[in-house]
Amino acid sequence: MSLINMAKREINCKIVYYGIGLCGKTTNLHYIHQAVNPQDVGDMVSIDTETERTLYFDLLPLELGKVHGFHIRFQLYTVPGQILYQQTRISVLKGADCVVFVADSQASKLQENIECWNELQEQLRRMNKDVADFPLVMQWNKRDLQDVLPVSVLEKYLNPYRVPSYEAIAVTGQGVIDSLRVGVNSTLRRLNRI
């Protein structure tokens, strides 16, 4: 749910990058942080844990235009993908306006991706979100690796609602900005309905 600051005439929207450990969520945010105009980007904040090399979360405000006379600020977060960090994922997911689900395209990761996708759907339902109507973007990451599944297989198992999806190679930026743009636009369309 977007946070509205009446005094500043500002709406803060939250986009969460969700997926299994080492699927490329953090790489997405690092690429975006470097690719966006420095005037439009705030500081990236990370909290590292002793047991993982991925980020706990990233904060990346992007200044956009106005909706109903309010400035729009997007905050981008990642969730830790490892199983033992489920409670942290739930906490970060609270208040999300959009989710970019980053799937590791490797065949060996399909079952983990399915379990993570099912967890995301369950958490959104618990937050009283209609999963079929919630702004979601699917990103099929690591398309440059050898043992990747065909997109049709990923779509079959991970995209039952037929939300927008993009092939990506986060380390080079392929598909990263496209995924973000669709996430931002779907969030803005939802705001305009309010």
UniProtKB/TrEMBL annotation:
Q: Which InterPro entries match?
A: Gliding_Motility_GTPase (IPR052705), P-loop_NTPase (IPR027417), Small_GTPase_ARF/SAR (IPR006689)
Q: Keywords for this entry? A: GTP-binding, Nucleotide-binding
Q: Name one GO molecular function term.
A: GTP binding
Gene3D superfamilies assigned: P-loop containing nucleotide triphosphate hydrolases
SUPFAM superfamilies found in the cross-reference section: P-loop containing nucleoside triphosphate hydrolases
Q: Which residues form a coiled coil?
A: none
Q: Which domain of life is it from?
A: Bacteria
Q: What protein name does the entry list?
A: Gliding-motility protein MglA
Instruction: Name the species this protein comes from.
Output: Reticulibacter mediterranei
Q: What is the lineage of its organism?
A: Bacteria, Bacillati, Chloroflexota, Ktedonobacteria, Ktedonobacterales
